[in-house]
Amino acid sequence: MTTMQQTAQTATNPNGTPTDSDALVIFGVSGDLAKKMTFVSLYKLAERGLLKVPFIGVAFTDWSDEEFKAHALQSIKDCGQKVDSGVWDAMSAKMTYVQGDYTKDETYQAVKAKLGDAKNPLFYLEIPPGLFLTAVQGLHAAGLTENARVVIEKPFGYDYDSAVKLYGQLSQMLNEEQIYRIDHYLGKNAIQDIMVWRFSNRMFEPIWNSAHVESVQITMAESFDVADRGSFYDRVGALKDVVQNHIMQIIGLLSMDPPSTATPAAIHAQQLHAFESMRPIEPSDYVRGQYTGYHDVEGVAEGSTTETFVAIKLYIDSWRWAGVPFFIRTGKNLGCTATEAVVVYKRPPLQLFKETGCPHPERNRLRFRFGHGDDGVQMQVQALDPSSQMASKPVVLNVDFSEALGEEKLPYEQLLGDALQGIATRFATQKIIEGTWIALSKILANPGPALEYAPGTMGPRESDALIEHYGGWIAPVGSKSDQPA
Ligand code: BG6
């Protein structure tokens, strides 16, 4: 396969706004991600009238167009989606399939033939990371990259050096504006809501800093185990599977300064500033764990020390966040499934009701709940306990987004819809990805042991020591572990 040096373009209208893509090509369309997420998301886009372009699926599986369509339809139904025959007929009429090997030129020639007159295709690479470069080289050699956008699945690199190297290679063929690094957490409404919550309300931003915030905790707990993903997971581990991407993106939104405008460039610039100010995490602020029984999972190497749990303390050395620890914990086979971020405020400056024998009030907490059908925000504030003279008692103000705001889009529905329109806000830039890898560089170089923990717990107890001076881990809503919610 040959690669010519060529300056690629971003497809824009004469007034500079992005041009809508005129075709969608998905590589890796026979895989698990497509089955569980992509087809149903495209169906939802079609239902909203937003999938108007031809859709070409590419994979190694030997399918006819009809078999490809049957697989897509079954996948949509398996996701619990009710299928309207009118929507499906219109969608499937635009679908075709290319069977091919990603290392062969003829695969890309076959894609080219199917693309016909399309000028601004969107290529989505939901393929193993080792094939990202091969696929882009193939598309480039076939002359298909000039006005294209390319959506690349995670992980982008496996450390800082490999992320820089991959970008160096891709940028021979694509410019930064053409590369859409997808992270489905950025497609979740409740996660993007962090920005709206902070910058569309007057009352939070003035106290969103080290003068008022004592610490921030992020928990991404999963009660299920590695299951049939052993050979993938064992090469990655929790740090690269979810911290470098999903959790870091949450921290970017929580810690960024207000952007000067709502453009992708201005938003990304502020997120980057947060990552540039992030201190590389010290091995002493890192606890790794592995659940008992992990070695029995198919595909896991004998004696593997891959972590299935991590707990981390990190700092962002910016004016806003100096001295405020951000705590992270995530793992498989834990006591509950929940993703949350809790901003913990300092106590009031004065213990005013001390004389009447009242204890120091609890800290205020602002809790964001992400995903798993339970999106929302809770504020824990103090109210007068009616059974006492002047003592306070924590009460919770709660909003459930599904009830208050209605149905949300699926993450990939949002992100693929955005990519088709050239809206880059919810995608990570190269510099942001590099920033996340730099933050993890010291602990990747010096990971330490993986401590065993029992399935159904919240990881090794050693993780408690990281946070004990900050009131301990806060239990996710609905779970019984840790401190009361
Ligand atoms: C994926 C990880 O990116 O995100 C999985 O590879 C993880 O290991 C999943 O379970 C979590 O996504 P969600 O949307 O279910 O929270």
Question: How would you characterize the overall build of this protein?
Answer:
This protein has 485 residues and is of the alpha/beta class. The protein contains 13 helices and 15 strands. The protein has helices spanning 32-47, 65-78, 85-92, 105-115, 132-141, 160-170, 189-199, 230-255, 264-276, 401-405, 411-421, 430-445, 462-467; strands spanning 23-27, 55-59, 95-99, 121-125, 149-152, 179-181, 213-221, 286-291, 309-315, 325-331, 338-345, 365-370, 376-384, 392-400, 450-453. The strands form two sheets. Strands 14-13-12-11-7-10-9-8-15 form a nine-stranded mixed beta sheet. Strands 3-2-1-4-5-6 form a six-stranded parallel beta sheet, sandwiched between helices. Helix 1 (32-47) crosses helix 2 and helix 9 (264-276) packs parallel to helix 12. The longest helix is centred in the middle third of the chain and has 26 residues, at 230-255. It starts with 22 loop residues before the first strand and ends in an 18-residue tail after the last helix. The model is unreliable at 1-7 (pLDDT under 50). It binds 6-O-phosphono-beta-D-glucopyranose. 6-O-phosphono-beta-D-glucopyranose is lined by residues 222, 241-242, 339, 371.
Q: Largest sheet, if any?
A: 9 strands, mixed
- Residue share in helices? 25-40%
| Averaged pLDDT | 94
Strand content: 15-25%
How many distinct beta strands? 15
C-alpha Rg (nearest Å): 24 Å
Strand order across the biggest sheet? 14-13-12-11-7-10-9-8-15
Q: Count of helical segments?
A: 13
Low-confidence region ranges? 1-7
**SSE topology string:** EHEHHEHEHEHEHEHHEEEEEEEHHHEH
Report the end-to-end length measured between terminal Cα atoms: 57 Å
| Overall outline | globular
Which class best fits the helix and strand makeup? alpha/beta
